[in-house]
């Protein structure tokens, strides 16, 4: 019988990979997931901020407070 993957397992597996973090406000942050904690506070590297699908800012490192996060998804690496 195979073990089911929990959300916590998934999040541990994607550390170091490119992700999209969607906020409750509708803003997207795209970058490399550096770390996160049990409160869903997120640290990203090589971060880009998108508003309405348009690139607005680039940040080296960014910290996102967990209560603002709607979801996290993996993204394919850009060429």
Automatic annotation (TrEMBL):
InterPro entries: Lsm6/sSmF, LSM_dom_sf, Sm, Sm_dom_euk/arc. Keywords: Cytoplasm, mRNA processing, mRNA splicing, Nucleus, Ribonucleoprotein, RNA-binding, rRNA processing, Spliceosome, tRNA processing. Signal peptide: none annotated. Residues 6-78 form the Sm domain. Pfam families: LSM (PF01423). SMART domains: Sm. The keyword tRNA processing applies. It is found in: Cytoplasm; Nucleus. Transmembrane segments: none annotated. GO terms for cellular component: Lsm2-8 complex; nucleolus; P-body; sno(s)RNA-containing ribonucleoprotein complex; spliceosomal complex; U4/U6 x U5 tri-snRNP complex; U6 snRNP. One of its GO terms (molecular function) is RNA binding. One of its GO terms (biological process) is tRNA processing. It comes from the Eukaryota. Its main location: cytoplasm. PANTHER family: SMALL NUCLEAR RIBONUCLEOPROTEIN F SNRNP-F (PTHR11021), U6 SNRNA-ASSOCIATED SM-LIKE PROTEIN LSM6 (PTHR11021:SF1). Belongs to the snRNP Sm proteins family. SmF/LSm6 subfamily. Component of the precatalytic spliceosome (spliceosome B complex). Component of the U4/U6-U5 tri-snRNP complex, a building block of the precatalytic spliceosome (spliceosome B complex). The U4/U6-U5 tri-snRNP complex is composed of the U4, U6 and U5 snRNAs and at least PRPF3, PRPF4, PRPF6, PRPF8, PRPF31, SNRNP200, TXNL4A, SNRNP40, SNRPB, SNRPD1, SNRPD2, SNRPD3, SNRPE, SNRPF, SNRPG, DDX23, CD2BP2, PPIH, SNU13, EFTUD2, SART1 and USP39, plus LSM2, LSM3, LSM4, LSM5, LSM6, LSM7 and LSM8. Plays a role in pre-mRNA splicing as component of the U4/U6-U5 tri-snRNP complex that is involved in spliceosome assembly, and as component of the precatalytic spliceosome (spliceosome B complex). The heptameric LSM2-8 complex binds specifically to the 3'-terminal U-tract of U6 snRNA. Component of LSm protein complexes, which are involved in RNA processing and may function in a chaperone-like manner, facilitating the efficient association of RNA processing factors with their substrates. This is U6 snRNA-associated Sm-like protein LSm6.
């Amino acid at each position: 019988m195979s073990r089911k993957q929990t959300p916590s397992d998934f999040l541990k597996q994607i550390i170091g990979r490119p992700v999209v973090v969607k906020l409750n406000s509708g803003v997207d942050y795209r970058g490399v997931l550096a770390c996160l904690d049990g409160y869903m506070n997120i640290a990203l590297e090589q971060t880009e901020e998108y508003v309405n699908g348009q690139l607005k800012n680039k940040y080296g490192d960014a910290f996102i407070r967990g209560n603002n996060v709607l979801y996290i998804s993996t993204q394919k690496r850009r060429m």
